[in-house]
Each structure stands twice: as structure tokens, then as C-alpha cells.
Amino acid sequence: MSERTEVSSLGEFGLIDHLTKNVEIHNASSILGVGDDAAVIDHFGKQTVITNDLLIEGVHFDLMYTPLKHLGYKTVAVNISDICAMNATPTQIILGIGFSNRFSVEALDEFYEGVYTACDTYKVDLIGGDTSSSQKGFIISCTAIGEVAPDKFVTRKGAQKSELLCVTGDLGAAYLGLLLLEREKKIYLENPQIQPDLENEKYTVGRILKPEARVDLIDFFAQNNVTPTSMIDVSDGLSSEILHLCKQSNVGCVLYEEKIPIGEETRAAAFKFNLDPTACALSGGEDYELLFTLKQDDYDKIKDNTDISVIGYLTDEEAGANIITKGGNKYAITAQGWNAFK
Amino acid sequence: MSERTEVSSLGEFGLIDHLTKNVEIHNASSILGVGDDAAVIDHFGKQTVITNDLLIEGVHFDLMYTPLKHLGYKTVAVNISDICAMNATPTQIILGIGFSNRFSVEALDEFYEGVYTACDTYKVDLIGGDTSSSQKGFIISCTAIGEVAPDKFVTRKGAQKSELLCVTGDLGAAYLGLLLLEREKKIYLENPQIQPDLENEKYTVGRILKPEARVDLIDFFAQNNVTPTSMIDVSDGLSSEILHLCKQSNVGCVLYEEKIPIGEETRAAAFKFNLDPTACALSGGEDYELLFTLKQDDYDKIKDNTDISVIGYLTDEEAGANIITKGGNKYAITAQGWNAFK
């Protein structure tokens, strides 16, 4: 970066004006946006779906290998993913950031460039925010807002015995992308002369640095009159999410290892690390795909969508949550997902 | 504190269950609360007002003299104050916290005790949240949600020439409470044997540690059919807020020093520090009173409310924002409020 403008030269209100001067509004529901004590939305008879995530440098992201523009995009995408997991349409975000004095106005501009790109992609409006200094590092608070027809939201609680267990896209790639970035970071720290070698790893690295929320699937459900009976987004790994759905819906399940969708690049990357690709899909996390359950009668509506895989079915709660391996063995599914406190 | 339970012994989901197990719901609009990907609200035809604040240890609060219970209460109160500043009724909050391993489950319980007390006081529902570790200190992200009849919200933009400039309660006390706490901290750090001497300073110290949002005034406005033409809450000091209203409404103003409401305890505390009480009210901040403008025709509706002071009137923009001192001199109002980046 050639220029460095200190944030203190703008002041708090000047900075907010600077960062939001090009904000665009896509939704009629955004009644009042940035610049007052609070924002106002009107979903015109629909219900409002709302979620908040706190993202902290050194815990949720590493700026050594995360470009600020990608971080801005990902912040919006992962929050919108939670809105999608309710079968709702995302409409607005509110963004608060805290940062130490190592961040210049140009660095914040890069972050916001990613935020605005995501706002365009997902047709959501930035309607409010907060900026603050921090004692250490970069801190992001993102609130995402969406809308859904009254009582048409989908929770984690509605799954019933005999229904289908389905997942969108493919799994495990984000975790392998993270391992690759961590490996290159270690090599770089040991010898800064060596350039990173990530040329053939675009898919996995892209999945961790710039994930997408599956708004397209929510649109597909609406167009094809499909209503999942329960849904959750895959942020902590497939195992952990399956256990959430089973516990909250009071059901068990059978998951078939051979049905878990895993991409070719992901398999290749897993083998390089001597890892089982299935284990990466089960425990990896950060894929931001949608895990959902479906009545069997609805199977015909989804069977031609190559972005949806049926990976198992639901059973009585007493049978527990189990996986049938490719070899035909049956094991209880255990959560080895990410635990922020360990 | 006699016990110390490590957060890691509960895990992320166990901690969330623990902190939210006694959550109470006060509003029919809270359709779905804690425990899913997102929360759902239905304001039944009303508009939704929403705001978010990021509060960072060492920047916005000092845990050396801020009890965690008070911090929890204040977090909710200051966010609700922003909802009140839109002339809206607060209904829900979403709370995200990040904390280092120096915080035990018992410490978090204390914080949440304050949060729940505030939820009871203001009849708002905690409907979602996020917990995370942090590399350093305590980080709070609070989203407050409220409702207002369609297009009845009050912004900073509606003030017009000749209208009255009004403020609720009294000003300057929170800043003096902060000075007192900072002085006692310094004394304590120099000599830990000396006990803090804050016995006669309950009012000022209470104003900084446990501020209240003026929901009562929003109720008063509704009951007496009063609609302010513009409104803002006093978080950065009276000067700064007056300049916001004037700039966004394209008006000037005359403020009378003698009309600024300042309590006796506040004056006494100011004199101890050799400070001008008026300067404390103008630049102090954190009072969380409401500054608003009113049509002259509405004066009769508010004149008997001893909690509202008329402190000046609005003029043409060209005349600027001015204060008339007790001695009869006229000065331009300048913002010396808190700047988080200096």
C-alpha cells in the first residue's frame, strides 16, 4: 500500500462518513440507514430474522494470510448464512468494528470494499454501524437481518423419523484450505525468502478465505415449493451440525459415508496431509453449506438439483446418530467440531 | 468470589445453555429466541428499529472499578437509549461477548445478572447471542431492537427554526463520576491500603456505572401526544449532540447556559475538581438523557414535566449554534466530546 492515512486525522464521525459515503440501498424494507441513533426497517407484514456474530483477530481469523477485503466479504457471508439456515431472505446488515492504531484508513477501506462487494452479491443493505478503537487487534461485530413469511421460518427442531437428511454443495474443503494456509505461514515464518505455493489449491483456499452463503438454495426452495422440516448451516463440521439437529428434533439418524459430498481437490489435499477426507468433512467446519431434513414425498422436487446430496435418513431417537462406513461398519457420530474455548 | 469454574469445563454450547437457562420472554413479538441459527421477531405491522454497539475493555470501560453486574446492566441500558432516541419502544436485545481465560463462569454469571436485571427493568427479551474467546480482555457486542408505528420514528433531521430545544433529566454527573473513579483508582494503585472514599458521591458515581435509558420519557410522549421534531441521546456531551441535530436538520440554535439542568451533587463534585459545571455538562458525555426539539405549540404539553428542561431555541442555519452565558456573552458551541481515536 502506497499511502497511509491515520484514522485519527478523520475522527470518529469523519471515518463513519468516509466508510459509508458510497453505501447503496437495494431493499425497500430499508427505511432509514446509516447516520442516526438507530436504523429502521419495515418488512411489510413479514417476520424479521436476526443474528449476530462476533469475530475476533487471533481467534476467528489470522490477518497474516487473510486479505482484509476477503475478511470483509466473509464477515457478511457467514452472517447471511445464518439467515439462510432459517429459510429466510437476507435484507440488511449492521456492522461494528474495533481496531488498534496499526490499521490505517486505507486498510479499513479494503475491509469495507469486501463488505460492499458482499452486499452487492447478496443484495443486502448496510444500514448501521459503529467504529471504535481497540487495545489489540481487529474486532468485528456483524448483525444480519432477513425476512420470512409469517411462521414459515425453519428451525433445528422440526425433523421427524423416516425423513431424508440432505446437504448442499461439498464439504471439508475449507478445513484443508486452512491447513494449507497455516502450513505456508509456518514456512514463511521460518524462511521469508520462500514464496507460498498455493497455485493448485485455489478451490480449498478459496473456500476458507471467501465462503459463500447458499442464498441460491433458499431461492430454489421457494421456486420449487420445498420446505425443509429442519435446517442448520455447516459452520462447525457435519458431525456437530447433525448432532444439533438430532438433539433438538429428538430423532436419531443414519448417515452414509459414501454419500457425503467431497470434491476432487479436497480429496487430493487431504491425501497430501495424510488425512481421511471423510474426517475432514465430518469435523472440519467453515463450509457454510446447508444441512437440512426433508419429507420423503418432497424427494422428487430436489432429485435433479446436483447441488443437493441425500446423505442419510432419520430414525427413532433411541437408535442414536450413526454413520455407516464405506466398509459397512456402523459407528456413533461424535462431535469433534471446533470448540472456541479449548 | 469463592468458586471458580473454568469456561472450558462447559464448552461453547454448554456455556450458552448455562447463561440463558433462565431467560424470560416479556414480548409477544419475540417469536423465536436463543438456541437456533437466528432469532425471529414479528412486530405485527409496526416498523423495526435496530442499533448495535461494540464495547471494548480498556476503551469503553475499566473493570478495575466497574462491577461486572453494573457493566451488564449498562450494556443493555445504553443500547436501549439509542432505541428511545428514535421515539421507539425497546423490545429485544441480542448479545455477543468475547472474553479471555481470566474470566470464570461465575464472572460471566455476574455480567448476565446485570443483563437480566436490565431486561426486567426495560421489559426487553434476550433473544440471541454469541460467545467467544478473545486474546485480550472483555468485548461486548449488543444489538438492541425496538418497534414504532409506521413512519412515526424521530430522526436527527426534522428540527426547524423557532422550535424549542429541550433536554431530559440533568447533565454532567456521569463525567464527574468517572473523574472520581479514576482518582480513586490512581490513589489505590499508589497505595492499596487506602479505601476508596465515595460515600458522598453516590449520585455521580451511579450515573456513570449504572445509567438508565429514558424509556419513561418515550411513554410520556405517547401518553401526552407529543412528537419531538428531532431527537438524539446524550452520549458524547451536550455540545456534540446539539451540533449533530443542527447539522443534520440544517438549523442553528441559541442555548442558554442558565437553563442547562445540572444537579447539586454534580455542581459540588465539579467544584472539588476546580471544573466549571457547565463545561462538564457540555463536554462530559455518557449522561444518556434525551435531547430533542419541539414545536412551540406543544410547549403546554410538556411544561409541567419537571424532568424536561427547555434550554434554548432553533434559529436559521446561518446564525450558527451559539451559547449565551450567564454573564450575557455569546459564544459559538464547539464539540469537545469524546473522540475514540485520540
UniProtKB/TrEMBL annotation, chains A, B:
Gene Ontology annotations of biological process type: thiamine biosynthetic process; thiamine diphosphate biosynthetic process
Positions with a binding annotation for ATP: 112, 129-130, 156, 235
Domain PurM-like N-terminal: start-end pairs: 35-148
UniProt binding sites for Mg(2+) 1: 53, 130
HAMAP family: TMP_kinase
Record NCBIfam families: thiL
Official protein name in the record: Thiamine-monophosphate kinase
